[in-house]
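User: Show me a protein chain along with its predicted structure.
Assistant: Here is one chain, sequence first, then structure tokens.
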Amino acid sequence: MDKKNKVWNSLEIAKLIVGIAMPISIASFGVITNMTLQESNHNFSLNKIIITKRAEIYEQIGEKLNNIYCYIEEVGEYKDMTPETILKYRRYLNTKMHSHKAFWSPETFDLYLNYMDREAFALWQGEVTDARIKDDPGQKNLCPLGKKIGITDLQGWKVRLTNNHMSYF
């Protein structure tokens, strides 16, 4: 009889352990799942905020960035723009992009810097000198705005432009 009681006691102990372990396992699984879902929701909300902020920033910079590209590539309404306007756009864009750097991926920010500082503009043209637009001053003088504002000797635009043409990346 002792063996039967001993087996029965082992079975009762096993049932007791399983009975306690199962609710603990289910509760642990529920807590972990809930924490994971909360973290996912937080990440989703954060990503939504970042995307919304990027869209707001792009609303402010998109047209000016496009105007710089159009001016250099001589497409769109480039004939209505002056080098001073383009340099003013560059300063504005640099302020916006650098002050909102945290909202852009490193790749996006590097592409912006590559275009602005290496492809579109020639930097370090001398002490206390603005960057120069990488474009041919002779071509811009022939456009209607160049003729309209009376730049015949190109001196006003030569200091803003350089013949260093873009190397496409």
